[in-house]
């Protein structure tokens, strides 16, 4: 197992964390539907408590996604976070406000009042996801930065990665393709959130409204996602010459990545089919509550494949349009072989972590949330 | 030529200090109250008495509010290494990133998964599984402290690493050296055990309020008993680990030690300053002004604590900067340490060797590459000194470090006596109104003592982001200063609001009291 293997292994793990994160955005999607599905105070309390038992998974996955990226591809951490300062900061702020809102919403003495914290939850659902998706869009469309490691010897300006656009990342929102991905992730999360409510809450009104929301959000999701996807397959991509590491533009790069890595292509197809099936279960079945699992699995597979074609097969996963040769690849931005190896040993814990998460989830969700449970103040903490 | 706006460094530091301090409001209570709750639930599990369940649930509610706010601030801290310390992320990410990722994989999921079971699972899982969840929540929190403190200790004492000229960064060469460095171990144990004091003071303070109001008397006595024992264990261990922490500082960060003691001119058999007032008119490190207006020292103690030898020489600020003394090594040998001026020259040599190496690499000039690589290898331990323009920059804020250290020691001593006293008088506290007031005021005091420890550790490390390797100046991101000022202002507002909300919610829970728990 050589350096390249470990770089690819860690790109896979980071991509998997990213894919799980997008699935877990059902929490944010659900939050954005708080007032749409929850028409009464009691219904909203059910929604918030239902999501409140899951939000930490999303949050922790986000933190681990960050930590994993830092440990395995530190040049990305350095370049993107330090350059696209504003979108990342705004995303963080959205998540900070979310983290406290569950706990503080119902509590007396919470200073800002009940509704404010609900608004924070809704805003996290809207802005947080839109910004996140738009920021990830730049992985396909490129950003404006320079990387020059020799700057470290310049005493007057030792910073290695420098952003070239004065908007410091907000300019990503001026690109339609980035926005399309932002919107797609936003609508997908709302679909997943609705499917999660169907699965997690026993309440006829919530159930009916959630099923309606699956359809209402699935349509714009499919439109935005397919437009983004087809556009990306046809667009020029950021390819790398393996011998020299030189980055160049190649027409249809991402399309060829799917063809040249058929396993990833098949995974993408399976993902889309599973996602559509999950949506179908949500919309057309009046009884089944299992849509979230199919849609969730589909989301993980589809996002994982999209992220894999960004890093594998001689592709730049974080390209620079200011200077193609500053673009980041899994080869030029990774940690040392020693660190990747050490971290790989730690990664053997991941199946164990997943196992206890599934077990705890199963135990906690055996009985679904209902009106009766919410009437006991001790159960309706959020 | 492009230059870096120097105020970017100050604002980046201010923002990091702000977010770290905010985070530290919540962490010590998580580390300690988690343990206290787990003890209470264990008693409930063993005895089956409902009062212990109520007690566990009551403290758990306060824990939950504190936990949520701590989690929120932690997110900013993690990503801030990228947003505001972009150079740092690349230059030392190979070492520093690993503990952060491990923290996520091994600790955060454990903490968050079992927090949900602990908080909502009373009627959903078995008694034994619930107890396990409570312990695992505490264990996850403590494990996360281990990894982040390993990362922090590495900033104080960068071991197990080597600079790679090809990739232009420091890279990990020995994982175990990073994990088990003596600095990491003493930092972890000192931070965790000193946090126990905070949680104990918190529980006792809240119970003292009940006693003052003459309500929940039995609840208060039982909680105080557990907290006082736990607090005493905490302070005793913190004293022990504090001693080893200070010893590590003396060995690895002599400048920090000099600042902690306000020591400019070192001597053999140096005394520890018990109390002292620094002389504000001392402006320059090598002038003849006395550093103190007043001080009481404990003879020879500093030498002993620093080198385990009553007559050892402890270098002061002037000695470290100007040289001319003999340093006693661990094996008892006296050697003349390299002076700061020499370190700066070596640092500059390392910088230009790196520059020349990169140029030779571009020109494909193998012989020049070999020569410069060799020069770099010989001078690289002082690489960071190449950024230093004036050696006075190497002196941290002496007054802040000195007074924070005194504050921590003096009030650490107070807490030792406090917990012992509480264990001696036991139920008599019920009639001692003055002690009840002291107990309530001990809550903020415990926090301030904990904060002062961090101020010593982090202000004393300045100007280094990574001791001797990377000064803060070379670690920042190139972000417009206006952007950092804006995010700083946003954080200030958010933190104040959330702090008010937390105090409001907790006060309300405390007022409602355990009788409210079903």
Please tell me about this protein's structure.
- The complex is a heterodimer of chains A (382) and B (518).
- Chain A has 382 residues and is mainly alpha-helical.
- Chain A has a domain of 254 residues.
- Chain A contains 16 helices and eight strands.
- In chain A, the strands form four sheets. Chain A has a two-stranded antiparallel ribbon with strand order 1-2.
- In chain A, strand 4 and strand 5 form a beta hairpin.
- The N and C termini of chain A lie far apart (49 Å).
- The relative contact order of chain A is 0.15.
- The model of chain A has no long low-confidence stretch (mean pLDDT 93).
- By secondary structure, chain B is mainly alpha-helical.
- Chain B folds into three domains: 366 residues; 78 residues, no CATH class; 46 residues.
- In chain B, 69% of the residues lie in helices and 6% in strands.
- In chain B, a hairpin with a 3-residue loop joins strand 7 and strand 8.
- The longest helix of chain B has 42 residues.
- The relative contact order of chain B is 0.13.
- At the A-B interface, helix 5, helix 6, helix 7, strand 2 and helix 14 of A face helix 2, helix 3, strand 2, helix 11 and helix 15 of B.
